[in-house]
Every structure is written in C-alpha cells, then in structure tokens.
C-alpha cells in the first residue's frame, strides 16, 4: 500500500532537490527513497522506473525555467528581451545545477510534447522576431543562442572562468553584446 502523503509530484520534487545537491546523474530510486524516508519499493507504487523519475525532474525543471524566463521577458523586446532571457536562463542554471542538467535530457516525444519545451522554443523565436530573421536563419540563431548560453553556464559551473582578472559576469555581458550585434547584422543565407 502507498504511504499517505507520498505522491508522484512529491517524489519528483524530492528528486529535483537531490539533483541540485548531489547532481542529476546521482538521482536514483534508492537515494530518493532515503530522502522521502520510505523503502525503495514504496516509490514504485507511484513512479515505475528511474527513467520515469528522471523524466519527471526534467519536465518539472523545464516548467520552472520557462516560468522564470517568461516572467523576465514580460514587456521586453529587442536587446532587452535577449538580455532578460539570457540572464534568467543563466540564473536558473547556476542556482539549480541538477535541475538544469535534467533539462538537457532527451525526452520521449509524448512527454516532450506535454512539457514546457515548446514554451522555450516559442519564447526564443519571439525574441528573434525583433531581429527580423527568416528561415533558415532563425533556426540557426536559435541554435547559436542555446549553444552560447548552455556552453557558458557549463564552463562557469565547472570553474572554467575562475582564473584571470575579468569576472565571469563581465564576460557574460560582453557575450550578450556580441550576440545582439551578431543577430542585428545576421548574414543572409
């Protein structure tokens, strides 16, 4: 019988917290069971597998990130929208490293369709409308933004910018200025 108060949402939230403290790769059914103070078998009454648990963390994290980015974007356009999006993305990734790592997980198509992944894509493309890009340039620009943001936060989290006299934040600001310039002067295909 399932323990009172134990729900899939509570289990996934505990797994997300565990991901932030111990790393997404260390989220296991046993570790989550210890965290919520139940036996491993009790989790299986709510979550069928480790893959389902990790997918749940990814879905939760994508929604949290989309909410943060959406709130930051409200009423902004052009460069201001780009900077707001980027800063919300970076802040989430730095404050929630395990949750952020889960957002990079490949989800089954049905799960991805129900997740906030589509909201992320729509917000990114909304920012790019301010730069008047058409296809295939818009798709290339989406990929440029994602790879820049993702690469920067991975290097920053890994200590890649700890040496030298220039702060990571100053380099981040320069990168955003360079992205704005690039998007404003995009070479046509």
Automatic annotation (TrEMBL):
Question: Which residue numbers delimit the DNA-binding region?
Answer: 28-47
Which domain of life does this protein belong to? Bacteria
Q: Which residues form the HTH tetR-type domain?
A: 5-65
| InterPro entries tied to this protein | Homeodomain-like_sf, HTH-type_TetR-like_transc_reg, HTH_TetR, MT1864/Rv1816-like_C, Tet_transcr_reg_TetR-rel_C_sf
Q: Which Pfam families match?
A: TetR_C_33, TetR_N
Q: List keywords of the entry alphabetically.
A: DNA-binding, Transcription, Transcription regulation
Any idea which GO molecular function terms this record carries?
DNA-binding transcription factor activity; transcription cis-regulatory region binding
UniProt xrefs under PANTHER family: HTH-TYPE TRANSCRIPTIONAL REGULATOR BETI, HTH-TYPE TRANSCRIPTIONAL REGULATOR RUTR
Q: What is this protein called?
A: WHG domain-containing protein
Q: Tell me what organism the protein belongs to.
A: Cryobacterium mannosilyticum
